[in-house]
Amino acid sequence: MKRRTRRSLVAIAVIALIVMAGWFFLTERPIAVQVVTIDRDVPVRIYGLGTVEARIVSRIGFEVGAALTGLEVDNGDAVARGQILARLHAAEQEARVARAAASAEAADATLGRTRANVVRARAVLAQREATNTRQQALAVRNTISAQRAEEAQRDVDVAAAELAVAESDIAVALAQRADAEAALRYEQALLDHHVLRAPFDAIVVDRHVEAGTVVRAGEPIFSLMDPTTVWTLAYVDEARAGAIALGQSAEVRLRSLPHEVFSGTVARIGIESDRVNEERRVWIACDRCPPQVYLGEQAEVRITVALLTEAFLVPEIAVSGFDGHQGRVWVVRDEKLTEVSAVFGHRTEDARLEIVSGLAEGDQVVSAPAKGLSEGRMARVLGGRAS
């Protein structure tokens, strides 16, 4: 019985030793890890999703209302500045222009008549002044009566007053002519408003009405786009948008042309973010634009915000407690594992973070999380792995 008990105790002790040896082997043996190495000339790009737009897109129409009698262009047509796009029924306005032109001619005739009256009034005044001079000389010699001399002077005064009236009539006639000419120009301007012209070199994006439609003043007839102002509107996550600056280079891929890359630069950064989606609007002006532009087409944008000549880049999955600025990583220090706090800078497209501080000299950063990572455990580096 004692021998059996002794054997049991020995068996238990052996099993315990085996368990302890297994636990030690599993938990204390050096763990194999991969570490990151220095990367060189790594571009830092920020991704954004957006649409193709144009800075100048105008919805144009007539300044007056009437029936459309003709449309000269259609969707997709290229038009030049000043080219006629559409016409309105203008018979009534043409009649108003003719009436205004007749009024202007009448004003010219009135002005001519008043000027002739001035010439006549001056001639009468000169004649009466000459008569008055003779009459006054005769009155001095008592050849004529004083009454006749007074009448001669009165005739001069009346002629001078009539000349003043005639000269004032010229001012009135000039004002009437100016008013008639202004009215004519106004009616001609209204007549010109019955013709719709292109305000700039453009592409017709859309035609909103058809011929025969009675349109109101200001109602859009065409949508025009200036093809020289094409750009891409991209929406970028606010958490990534802080490094974006004007003039940075960018690449644009269109959904319809996924195998082509169009280059551009950051032309505008919106000063107001989307409060719901927490995104910032960024406009990319194309250096090389697609031959055919489709407004509203989906586009993928990658903006190059930096070029890292040398950097330690660790996958974000290997960082714990990352708050956008700091986090903790495992490093191999003196062949042992330890967890350290690090400060991060740029983030690459493939979710790698640039370590800017927090490492000691000789530290090797573990590139991926693994089971068994614990403080002070021995580690065996399998070899550098480009982060």
From TrEMBL:
Family in the record: Belongs to the membrane fusion protein (MFP) (TC 8.A.1) family.
Domain of life: Bacteria
Annotated CusB-like beta-barrel domain residues: 229-269
UniProt-recorded name of the protein: Efflux RND transporter periplasmic adaptor subunit
Gene3D superfamilies: 2.40.30.170, 2.40.420.20, 2.40.50.100
Keywords on record: Membrane, Transmembrane, Transmembrane helix
Listed SUPFAM superfamilies: HlyD-like secretion proteins
InterPro entries assigned: Beta-barrel_RND_2 (IPR058792), RND_pump_MFP (IPR006143)
One CC-aspect GO term: efflux pump complex
Segments traversing the membrane: 9-26
GO molecular function: efflux transmembrane transporter activity
